[in-house]
Write a structure and sequence with these properties.
Length: 831
């Protein structure tokens, strides 16, 4: 069945291609170029920063594009079609200048206007000073863009440090990312999915040094062309890797008391062929943390107390790399292929001492447990895209894409445990789990212009996911010294999830003021899962469902750069390997963790209204929204009569949430401040452990960041962030806060900087609490937090960048939580 559907998909794309490909009638290429220059003061010959530069067709009055000059006076217009143009340059206190007779051709698509001098006006307005900057935050029709590449305070960190500074996002201690209170987000890398996020998002983000990240896009209301990725939206991380014309490279090195990294890239391009490569390695110094765990149970008037105190040391070592190539057959046909690979190790070593007491017969049982855990996450993604454009139809395009993605998740722990009373659970054991997630994706997308300002986008897609979880618990025989498997903890689980989708999306403009994006997406899902060796009371998992997912967005541009937007969309969030893995992790025998392969997807309906304006020099982004999520997936804790507990996941019920997002920025001379926050309600009703529960609460996060230009080559950044506890029907996860600053000195081809995180607090504690009808549980862990590091960057070469992105965006899985492959609040392969 799966093979036949793929054949049908291939037949669909072949019919379109054979009907549309102009191989015999191609009249010539159509390649865009760029226009560059530098604006100088005619008297002092000094660069003029932040001057307005506008581009228009020769003889026309309407502008096609506009930019501000950089601090060094340079400006650039990218993606300029061949033709005749005029450039208009203006700045307060200077005479406007119009450069005419500008022409780009197929032979010479790139044009450098060189030095352009502006004359000062004879009469200057007294005591007026205007400053500006290249925007750190951009608000576009369907997304918010955070430009991170020049932020000194994140140098030497990882991707979580970058995401913490992005408006609308919230990142907790472990690196779990949420948008508007929901962790049902899908993270893409350069517009492409990655198998690295199939198991644990928090650990995957720690694979990325911050120096690799150019910008972050947040899409809260995706159109029908995007995968039905979940209740919150899409986070697209854009790296600094690009295909180029020329030869260039760079080296970024960071060293500190917490994290160390090295990132290199080398790119080469000539004519219609380009090659790019990059590699990164990072190491987190060992960090010693403290653990506190207390649970009080009252079952049939019997009071039981379970308590632990201990220490654990963690460290991380990993790396990633990328090799990509593109070739333009001509101006209409091109192919692009890339291979991304990664590896990431997470090691843990520690000991806890504790006791279990019971008020009736047992008395007090003391115990200790040591744990030495080694975890490895690794994999690769290979993407190949073919794109065909059409002569004399600028926006018409057909693309065919294929991707294979594989992710390995191997966990191993040696556990030694001894009890004074409950000696029957004494053990010297090894715990294994080898998880493998393989995805095959085939996709066809077609864009057809209808009339001026309107286009139709359609496409089909198939995703075949095969997940294997091989787990094994072994106990050491004291007589032979050999480890023997425990039958009930030894098995292989196969899980298949196939998704077939098709969409149609219509984009058009009405009355030159209203922009519409409306569409419908269909997604069919087939799920099957079973143990290779039958396990008692564990039936085969089978589930098929179909979803029709509408979306609608209308925006209106107002005067003075104001805009308003209204949108509605319906999304689906399927659980990933992290949630469905049935591995019974009993590193802590009395507080086990296990996945749930019978989980259903979350379904979300969202209505959003956004308004952007400028007032008294403040740039303001705001949005209000309502979101209803059905079959919400939450981690739940069940305490058994034996005193042991099980952490798992379940579709607990429904959550209705109202929210407000607010962000504003203000520039004062050389200082720019940005402040904002998110406030949203948690109003959930559901059933947990066969008991009906409801809870009404709220969550919020606040942030403040900014930068100060000390001189033309020295810049300082600072930031602070606070997130309230995240709510569930059973309790709260820890709140989180962080602050820091960085300073950087730029040279011609290099820079050096220093960054500091929490300079006045070496350690920080994080507390969480869960409650049920017969228990109360409290967790606390303390880790080193103060961080000081230095960063060095060096670049060489001269290039013309040509961004190329895959059409494949697998964004439909709900991703994992918690650090180190351990669900928050669970035992994990840990102490």
């Amino acid at each position: 069945m799966r093979l036949s559907i793929f054949i049908l998909l291939w037949g669909f794309c072949s019919v379109i291609a054979s009907a549309q490909m102009p191989f015999g009638g191609n009249k010539g290429p159509s390649i865009k170029g760029k226009i560059t220059g530098i604006v100088l003061d005619s008297t002092t010959n000094e660069p003029i920063s932040f001057a307005s530069v506008a581009l228009r067709k020769a003889g026309k009055t309407d502008f096609l594009d506009g930019v501000l000059t950089e601090i060094n006076g340079n400006f650039k217009f990218n993606e300029v079609a061949t033709g005749k143009y005029e450039v208009v340059i203006s700045f307060l206190g200077y005479q406007e200048k119009i450069i005419k007779d500008i022409e780009t051709t197929l032979k010479s698509p790139d044009l450098d206007l060189g030095k352009i001098s502006l004359r000062q006006n004879s009469v200057l307005t007294e005591a007026v000073e205007i400053t500006g900057e290249r925007a750190l935050i951009e608000n576009k029709v369907d997304r918010l863009v955070f430009n991170a590449e020049n932020d000194a305070s994140i140098a030497g960190g990882d991707a979580t440090d970058v995401l913490r500074k992005v408006p609308l996002l919230s990142v907790d201690l472990n690196g779990n990312v949420s948008l508007r209170g929901s962790e049902s987000v899908r993270i893409l890398i350069n517009g492409k999915p990655s198998g690295m996020f199939s198991n644990n998002v928090a650990d995957a983000l720690k694979m990325f040094p911050a120096d690799q990240i150019k910008s972050v896009e947040v899409i809260t209301s995706p159109s029908a062309k995007y995968d039905a990725e979940g209740s919150a939206g899409i986070i697209n991380i854009i790296t600094k890797k690009s295909n180029i014309e020329g030869l260039a490279g760079s080296v970024n090195a960071s060293a500190g008391i917490r994290q160390n990294s090295l990132f290199t890239n080398l790119n080469a391009g000539k004519g219609r062929l380009g090659l790019s490569s990059s590699a990164a390695i990072f190491y987190s110094n060992p960090a010693n943390g403290r653990i506190t765990f207390d649970r009080t149970e009252n079952i049939d008037e019997v009071v039981r107390v379970y308590s632990q105190r201990g220490n654990q040391c963690t460290s991380r070592l990993g790396g990633n790399g990328n090799v990509s190539a593109f070739y333009d057959f001509n101006g209409y046909h091109s192919i692009n292929s890339s291979l991304n690979f990664r590896g990431f190790g997470f090691d843990l070593e520690g000991r806890v001492d504790g006791f279990l007491s019971q008020s009736d017969i047992m008395g007090r049982n003391d115990f200790f447990r040591t744990n030495n855990a080694n975890n490895f996450f690794g994999g690769y993604d290979w993407n190949t895209d073919y794109t065909m454009k059409f002569e004399n139809q600028k926006d018409r395009e057909l693309s065919m894409s294929f991707q294979i993605s594989k992710e390995n998740n191997n966990q191993e722990a040696d556990v030694l445990e001894e009890h004074t009373v409950l000696t029957f659970i004494n053990r010297d054991a090894r715990i294994f789990n080898e998880g493998e997630n393989t995805e095959l994706t085939f996709q066809v997308d077609y864009t057809h212009p209808l009339w001026k300002g309107a286009k139709l986008e359609t496409g089909v897609k198939g995703v075949l996911r095969d997940i294997v979880s091989d787990f094994n618990n072994q106990v050491k025989d004291p007589n032979t010294g050999l480890y023997n498997s425990i039958p009930e903890f030894t098995n292989i689980f196969d899980y298949n999830q196939d998704v077939y989708a098709g969409y149609g999306s219509l984009n058009f403009i009405v009355a030159k003021k209203y922009s519409f994006i409306t569409g419908l997406r269909y997604e069919g899902t087939r799920i099957g899962g079973a143990f290779r060796t039958p396990v008692e009371n564990t039936p085969m998992v089978e589930n098929d469902y179909q979803n029709f997912l509408p979306s609608f967005t209308v925006s209106r541009n107002l005067k003075n750069f104001k805009s308003i937007k209204l949108s509605y969309n319906q999304r689906i969030q399927r659980p990933s390997l992290f949630f469905v893995n049935p591995f019974n992790n009993n590193s802590d025998f009395l507080n086990r963790t296990i996945g749930n392969p019978e989980l259903l997807p979350e379904i979300t309906h969202q209505i959003e209204m956004g308004y952007n304006t400028s007032l008294l020099g403040f740039t303001i982004f705001s949005a209000v929204y309502y979101k209803r999520t059905e079959d919400i997936i939450e981690q739940i804790l069940k305490v058994e009569e034996t005193g042991a507990s099980v952490n798992t996941f379940d579709n607990v019920g429904t959550n209705n949430s109202f929210g407000l997002n607010l962000f504003t920025s203000k520039s004062i001379n050389k200082l720019t401040l940005r402040v904002g926050g998110n406030f949203y309600t948690y109003d959930a009703q559901g059933i947990v452990n066969n008991i009906e529960l409801n809870r009404q609460s709220y969550e919020y996060n606040l942030f403040l960041n900014g930068d100060y230009t000390i001189s033309g080559s020295i810049k300082m950044d600072f930031f602070g962030f606070f997130r309230s506890p995240r709510r569930t029907l059973q309790g709260d996860t820890p709140s989180f806060s962080i602050y820091g600053m960085g300073i950087r000195k730029d040279f011609k081809n290099s820079s050096i900087g220093i960054n500091v995180i929490e300079p006045f607090q070496n350690d920080k504690a994080f507390d969480s609490e869960q409650t049920g009808p017969n228990f109360t549980q409290f967790n606390s862990f303390t880790i080193p937090f103060r961080s000081i590091g230095v960063n060095f960057r060096y670049k060489f070469g001269s290039v013309d960048f040509k961004e190329r992105k895959s059409k494949i965006k697998n964004s439909d899985l709900k991703n994992g939580e918690g650090g180190g492959g351990v669900p928050a609040g669970g035992g994990g392969v840990g102490i």
